[in-house]
Structure formats: structure tokens, C-alpha cells
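Hi support team,

I'm opening this ticket because the web form for multi-chain structure prediction keeps timing out on my end. I have pasted the exact lines I submitted so you can reproduce it. The total is 788 residues across two entries, so I didn't expect it to be a heavy job. Is there a limit I'm missing, or should I split the entries? Thanks in advance, R.K.
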Amino acid sequence: MTASATRPAGSVHGWVAHLRAGGTTPWLAWTDPSTDPGSDPTSGGRALPGAQQLELLRRINLALESSARPRGDHDHLRTRLADRVLAAPAAGRGKADLPLVGAASGGFGAQPVDPATVSAHELLRVASTLLADDLVALGPDPVRRGVPRPWRRRFRLVGDPVVATAAREHLLGRGRPEGGPRPFVVAVGGPLDELLAHTWTQRCFEHGSRPWADWLRFWRERDQLPARADLDDSIHRWGGRRPYVRVVTDLAQLPEHLGVRRLPEVRVSGADQAELARRISAVVGIRVPVGERPALMRTLQKRMPDSGVAPVVVPPTEHDWVASSAARTTRALTRAGYPVVGDLADLAPRAPGLTGLSRHGGADDRQVLDLAIRMIVDTGWRAGRERSVER
Amino acid sequence: MSRRVLLHVGCPKTGTSYLQDVLFRNQEVLREHDILYPADRFDAHFLAALDLMTLPWGGIETEAVGAWDRLAAAVREWHGTSIVSHEIFARATPTQVERALASLGDAEVHLVLSARDLVRQVPAEWQENVKHRSHITYAEFLRTIRDPARDSRIGSWFWAVQELPDILERWGSSLPPEHVHLVTLPPPGADRGELWRRFSRTFGLDGLPLDLTAERENPSLGVPETSLLRTINERVTSIIAPPDYRPLVRETLAHQTLSRSVASARLGLAPADHAWARELSQRWIEVLDERGYDVVGSLDDLLGPDAGTFADPDTATAEELLPPALDAISALLVEGARLRAVEERLHRELREAHEELERTRATTAYRARRKVVTTLEGSPAGRGSLDAYRRLRGRKG
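Hello R.K., no limit was hit. The queue was backed up. Here is the completed structure from your submission:
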């Protein structure tokens, strides 16, 4: 079958029904024009999904096939999933739903495409809508709140958002909520390139963000640091005064400055996880009131399966700016004379390599799509109580 | 009274802002005449469109949660005619169109599309892109939209909201052609009230005592002004976030300052592009004519004006850019001064609040209590005692 030959209308509906029934044949290899009207929701004059939805469904079917689950009872679940995929909009201002090459068209609208050539970026627009709807349906995990210990140490955590968020939540569960009268301002520092990576990653799991490379460029061109990565400014903002401030660069000593013996080790989300979360967050923003989004996104952060991809890394093109910003922060903290737990020299960037990541230091769209399809196919992340991330 | 819905889905740059403003401001009068324009804010239908189409839009979409369903529910509950209007509905996919029409219930749906010739729409759309942070040159924009692949974000959006036969096919294929109303914009130089008369007739507003004052329009810019804005975007798009860009650049610079230069040359098409736009428009006119829609105006309006003198915004000289640049600097300084005044007022209020607080603390008894508290806060036992004391007193802080 060539891409240019026009096929009978029944052929498209036949292929949709084939995919809906779990088929994996690519469009250009599809030769059976027969249609079972009862098995194709798009027959009978209903709108045809775009190539994005159809190709995503085919990839999902491929993944389901390779997961070797027995069909039987799962059939109705698969059909329901297929219907959701076919009806899901591609989020954002990208391409509208693309028609299939070879299918009859009125001569207007977007250029028909071979679905197999639709980019991972386009497929992700549909996949992120599905996952956002799954997350909204799941709802936020409850936050554990222990009975407040009256003798607890009062603290205000600023700095590294990944470490601070995890510690804050752990301490809340142990009856040691943040805040209180005259708290110590505990600023968690580290190599600035890692701090920036953690700040962007955590943003993706809260309110979303612009893409990693754009976000870095935004701050570099302004020659400013984002609020949570700017330790000196964070301490100022929380009214930290010299004896009541600790700048902690040695994380092993962080627990005692928060009044506990130990803290759970922190898992930094991989670049693919953060990028997928960023896309999901954009859709969640249209689905639930803005105040509910962070709790949902943090639920996602804890439940998202790990694919082994490294966290985002500051690319070499930004190293000079990061190094000069780190030096400026070090000077400001030194001048302010805050007590330091560790060494301010630890704020200097480490500049790790880009192993397994794109040249921008983020995840490749294909890695993100693989993760998205895995989450659509394997619903384990939606089941039961939250998984522990402590190591 | 029969239930009808007039669903106005586009196109951008066809006088929609003015129409929507009139409808929004005259909701009460319209209701008295059994016409519903359900909007609690000016951009209510824009938010409904974002919701329907799952379209993130620089953060505004967070205000759109459930907006389409609320709008559709209001329409379903209304006993008379309802009007829904926003130009970005034009971009909806067939699946979204199906959902939208299904959610309007059993009312008789009439689709309205207002349309202007491509000769004027192409430059207007480039200008809209520039007002929405883009720094694409005019030549590159034209290359992008003329690329048949429509592979870029700009190209796919442009055709999704401007290709009349496609929009009408997507939105109108399930409706009888007499329920599809194509309102053409009058040619340049026509009577200024003519477009309103066409809208009024289509939406059944003739004879209603409406306040037609133009409070909100989407003004166009001249050639050097657009060129300047594009150049500014090159510098600022990557460092000014959308929530700051909207008030500072689009509102203060573009709408309130640069659009005032009415003497500047207006943007058009170069001869080759003009010929291409005319040829394409002619094809559309033939197709639309065959479909038998209700045309309000004339399909000939869609052919566009003859080619005029072309002023290329990509080659605007520094001398041409200087006057609008000075206007821009002046406007931003005035805005900066206004914001400084706001900041100063807030600082003053904060200072006064601090002083008030200090006065209440300036007593010997307070200082003594504070010393005790500070000492106790230094040890776990002291903190426990303080906490117990505060609980007894029923205080948290």
C-alpha cells in the first residue's frame, strides 16, 4: 500500500476498529477495509480521531502486547482505555488533529500524515492529557500530620526545594511542622547547578514550568537566580537574623538542625519524569482549581515509576553563568556572616556530564513518551496507598 | 419560545472584540428580550474555549476550570436565544466540535463565522503573533504559512483559525446549510456601521436599545510600530514571563501607545503574496458558494482589495523606528512612575503598621515578657513549657 493512494472510507473505520480491539498493524500496512460498525465508535458519522490519537493507541497496544497480560477480563478495560485515547485532545497550541494519509478528505485542513511518522512530541500531547485525567480521578494522597510536639525545634526551611519539600513533609508527619515563633531559618544549599536542576524539577511537580532549556535561559539572560535557588534572598525574605540562621551544605548534618536524628534520603526525579510532570501539570491546570494542583502533582511525584533516567543537568553552555552566580551567592553569604554547616565552597557547580540526556541537559521526547506509555499501560502507580520513596 | 443557540466561532481579527464587548455590556437589555449572553467577565467565552479545547494559554487557563460546562449548562437552561462567541473556537478539532454541539442540548444550533479577506487577514495575523510575544519576521511568517506542510506551530494555528472552508466543515457539517451563517466583513472604505449591521441582523439584535459605544477593541498597528514591537520581542520574550508581558508590552506598549500612530503606513502584502492570497480566496469563494450557506454580506468581500503600496516591516529603518521607540520609552517611564507610586504607598502602609506594632511593644512589661520567652525558646524543655502555657491561654503564636 502506498501512502498516496486514496482508500475507501470503510478502510479508516476498519483500522480504528482494529486498533480499538487491540490491533497493532500500522496504517500503511492495513489492507482489510471491512468495518464492524458496532466495534468502531467513530463509525456512523462520528468524528474521526486524529493521527496523534490513533498512533498513540497503536503504541499502547504494542506495549500491552509485550506486557503479556492475559486478555480475558482485561478486554473491557482495554476497550475503555482505547475509547479514552481516541477521545483525548492533544493538549496545547500544537497541531490540530491530523488526518490520515490516503484517507478521503475535502481538500482543506492539515496535511494528511502517516501516523507512524507522528513525532513523540505530538503523541505526548495526547498522552499527557490522559495521564492528567488519571491523576485528577485519583485525587491527592492524604498528607500525614502528626500531633505537634510542643518541644520541637522551630524552623523555616529554604533553599533546595527537593530536599526542603521532602524534609518538610516528613517532619510534618512526625509532629514537627514548619514555622512557629522565632524559627531558625535553615537554608539548604549545594552545588548551584544541582540546586537549579532541583528547583526546576520541583516546579514541574507543583505548578509546572517552561521547558528546562528555556527556563535556564530566562534566568541566565536576566542574570538572576530563581527565588528558591537564591539562598541569600530566601534568608532575607524569611527575616533571618544572624544567630537564628543556618546555611547547611553538609546534608548529613541537616537533621540535627531541624531537631531530629535522621531524615529520609531524597530521590531526585529523573529528567523524563520531570518533563512528563511538566506536561501533565499544564493539563491539570485546566482540570482543577489552581490551589489543588500542587497536592495532585506531589502525589504524582511520589507515585511516578522510575525509569532510571538521570535528573536534568545544566548544559555546558550555561556553566560560566552558573559559576559566576555561585561565586556571587558565596560572597553574599560570607558578607552576611551566617553560620555555615559544611562549607560555602560546596556551592560551586559540579558540572556533571550529559550521559543519557539531550544536549540541553533534559530528557529526549522519546524517553518521556516511553515513560508516559508505561504509565498508561501499567496502572500500578494509581493503585493503593502511596509508595515509600525512602532509601 | 423556541430555544436557539447562535454559536459564533471566529475568525480572529473580524471585529469580534467589539461584538463581544457590546454583548457583554448589554446583557441585561438582551435578557429582557429573551437573549442570553452568559458571561460573568468579559473573557468568559474565551475561558470556555480554552477549557473545551484543553488549551494552556500563558497561565490564564487556570481560570478556565469547568468554564465550558458552566457555559453550556447556562445555555441549556435558557428558554430563548443564547449567544456564544469567541474567535478561537475556530480551532476546535472534530472531536471537540462534537462534544461542544452535544453539550448544548436540544436547542436549534446556528453557526456563525465572521470572515475577512486573506489579503487583510495575513498581515493582521502576523501582527497578532507579534502582540503575543513572537519575533518572527514578516517574510518568515509568510514563508511559514505558505508552506503546504503546515508543520510549524504558527502555520498550523493560522490555518486552523483562518481557513474558512475547513472551519465551516469542522463546525457546520452536521448542520443544515441554512443554519450556517457566514458574515463577511465589508471591503475597506465601506460605511463604518456596515459590519455592525451585518452582525446585528445575524444575531437578531436589530431594533434593540443597545449601548454600542466602542469600549474595547483590538486595535491594529502601523508598519514601523509592528516592526519595533517585533524587535523588542527579540530582546524580551525569553526574559519577560507571560503574566508580565501582557500588561507591560501588549497593553501598555501595543494597545495604549503604539496603536495611536494612525498616520503610519498600514501593513499589506507584497505583489507576489497578494496574488497568492487572491487566488486562494477565489478557490474558497467557489467552494463556499457551492455549499449554500446563508451569506450575510457578499462572498465577493472575501476576495480582498487590490494591491496597494507595500511597506516592508522587515526593512524599516532606524529613522522610522525612532519615533515609536521614543513613544514606547516614554510610555514605559510613565508606567514605571505609576508603579513606583503604588510601591511607595504600600511601603508607607507597611511602615505605619510596623510603627503601630512597635508602639504596642514599647512597654517595660512587654520587654520583660519577651526576654523570658526568648530564654525559654532556647531549650526543648522551655519550648514545651511555652507551648503548654500557650495552649492554656488558647493562643497559637
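A quick check on our side: Chain A touches chain B at residues 45-50, 87, 89-97, 106, 108-111, 129, 148, 150-154, 181-182, 214, 217-218, 221-222, 259, 282-283, 285-290, 293 (CB under 8 Å). Let us know if the file doesn't open in your viewer.
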